[in-house]
Amino acid sequence: MKERNEAIIYVHNSQTIKNMFLKVKPCDRDELRSYLYEILLEKPDRLVKAYSEGWLDFLIWRIIDNQYNSTTSPFKRKIKGYLEQEITSDIPDVRDEELVAEMWLS
């Protein structure tokens, strides 16, 4: 438990890891950072092993790269789904003739 907490503190304070997030769009950084912590805390054994053996930075980079750049990652689906829902909710159904007539007359 102590090593897990130390590893999380390291992730939070590491300038190297902070710099990794500069490769991510500013609007996605906080969401991806939260998702990263979620992934790390789901597998505490892997987190502790990576921290104690010195390859935690590499693990973090692989998670960020895989989640952010993959089109099929859970993170990308979550963000893409959210954006599609947000965008399409404002688009009127153009098959509604009354709505189209109202838009043209106003």
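The record above closes out task 2.4. Task 2.5 opens with a second protein, given below.
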Amino acid sequence: MIIDIYAEKKKKEVMEDTWGHLAPIPNKKYPGRIIFCCTDYGENVLISHLFEELSDSPWFYEDISYFVYSQNLEEGKIYLFDGWYKKFKNENCRFSGKTKVLDLSKGDLK
């Protein structure tokens, strides 16, 4: 069996060469909102997000997907996260803010 010990390094280089201009600036706080839900089947799903100063990138997609997936949500509810996102130089990230259940009958999205 042949193992490519440089595969992770190559992946990182290709991502930076291709999408590096979209990468979050390290240690910068990006204010924004995320709307997500938990389906009746227990799947956490990202519905929408708005971080005006932040471009979509593979790094942000991975971070926001993990953030939504890792939430302990009640089935059949829609949630709004209002806060900020920060990517650190060591490639870790942080979302900080408040998450609330949306009540669409009261116009929570307006």
